[in-house]
Structure formats: structure tokens, C-alpha cells
Hints:
By secondary structure, the protein is mainly alpha-helical. The protein is built from 8 helices and 2 strands. It has one domain: Helix Hairpins (Orthogonal Bundle), CATH 1.10.287. It starts with 5 loop residues before the first helix and ends with a helix.
Amino acid sequence: MYKNSKNTEIRIKNDFLWLLIALGLFVFIPSLIPSGGVKDLMIYFTLLLVLSCSLISIELSKAHLWTGAMLAVLVLITTVFPFADSNMFAFLVQIGSLIIFLSYITLIVLRRIAFAERVSPNILYGSIAGYLLMGLLGGFWCRLIEHLYPGSFLMPLNWTAEIDTLTYYSFVTMSSLGYGDIGPGTPAGRATSIFIAIAGQMYLTINIALLVGSYTRNRQKN
């Protein structure tokens, strides 16, 4: 499926690297900026980068590209809703579109890794990008659960349940670090935390198996 002409391969060379950079900016930059209009603008700008680089990484298939483009447009439209936090339906559409889009991109990334003919630097970039996508997905799931069940995640008094805080919790849980500054406070929060922890370990296990399998197959052919 991903065997294309030489020109196509050159055109998309290191596409996962650009996705990795965009995800890194989206994860780290907003955390360094105090809450306010500048932070909201930076989140929207870095999200736009993630959407663009995600579409580049799936453009090898027209069907995937069209599906991803429609989801990306939905994300862009719903992200600018100024009343999403006060309107349940608007919030569900906003957070749901983000979760669906990131899930779709994560599956495409994993599929490309699974069917890679060799372990190239671009595939390694994709593996890291996939891990960041999983962490972001966990953060948005936590944001959804916190909105539906307030108090699902306990944190210091001077912290707020914003997406960057919950994304931090997602990565800490996914990597089994367990700092203890944030913890689940409701059954829904505990169930979400368990799911994130299991998903993180499964991703690492499956991803390593795919990379080793691809490397072994390539060695046997040579």
C-alpha cells in the first residue's frame, strides 16, 4: 500500500520528523506560558501545526487523507468555540473531535510502522511521535472525564484542570512514573488512569516488537 514512486518518496521524506516536532511544540510550549490570551493563541497555533503535519503523514493514501482532512476541519471549527466549557454539547463535540482525530492519526502511524520494510530514521521518528500522540490522547480523555465528573483528578490547590496539566498527568501515568502530585479522585478517574497506564505499556511493547520484526525481516532479506 505504501509502495509509491521515487518522486513520492522524496516528497514525503521525514514526514514523521515534522509530525514529531509539531507534537513536541504542542506538548511543551503551552506549559511554559502563563494562562491567558497568549497561551490560548499558542495552543491554537501549535494545534494547527499538529493538524497540518498529521495530514502530511497520511497523504500516501487519498482515502486516509480525505478522512483526516474532514476531521481536521471539524477540530479547527470546534476549537474556536468560546462557549465550549459552559455548553455541554459544544464541549462534547470539541473534545470528541480532538479525540477521534488523534486516535485516527495514531492508528495510521502504527500501521505505517507495522508495514515498514526497514527501520529507517523516519520510522523511528514515527515511533516517538506515536508515543506523544498516545500521551495527548490520554490528556484529552482526562479532560473529558474531569468535565463529566468534576473532581475526578485531585491536584494541588494552585493547579487547574487545564489540558496541559492533564496531559502532564497522562504522560506521568503512561510512563508509570507516579510523582503523586495528581491522582484520581473518583471511580471514573481511577478507571481512566488504569486505561492510560495499560495503553502506555502496551504501546511500548507492541512498538518494540514491530520494530524488531521489521529489522529482522530486512536482515534476512540481505
